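Reopening this ticket.

The earlier resolution said the output was attached, but the attachment link was broken on my side. Pasting everything inline this time so it's all in one place.
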Amino acid sequence: MKFFFQITFLILILLFAGCSPKKESSIPKKYQQLVEIYTELYLLKNLTTINDSTYADSAQIILDQFGFTQNEYEKALSYFNDKPERWELFYQKVLDNLKTKTTSDSTTKQL
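Inline output:
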């Protein structure tokens, strides 16, 4: 009888160990690079006056610099679209990045 309880206990341990919470494996692997890309694209779109075809060419250059294809970029953004609350943290990181870039740009211009 004692052996039965030991086996049952061992089986339960193995079952619970195998039932760990599902990790979100679809989180973009290059998260910080994605923040950088989004920041650069924002600056390009909002702080310059370029036409759509020039924007598309420039956007592709930015993606290339960070090692992203257009498909990878869109796939990474769809991760956020799956659960819109994910955008909040992402946008906060982009805003922090924008503040850093605009502060460093204004400091450089003053020198």
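Reporter confirms the inline version is readable. The chain has a mean pLDDT of 78. Residues 28-106 form one domain.
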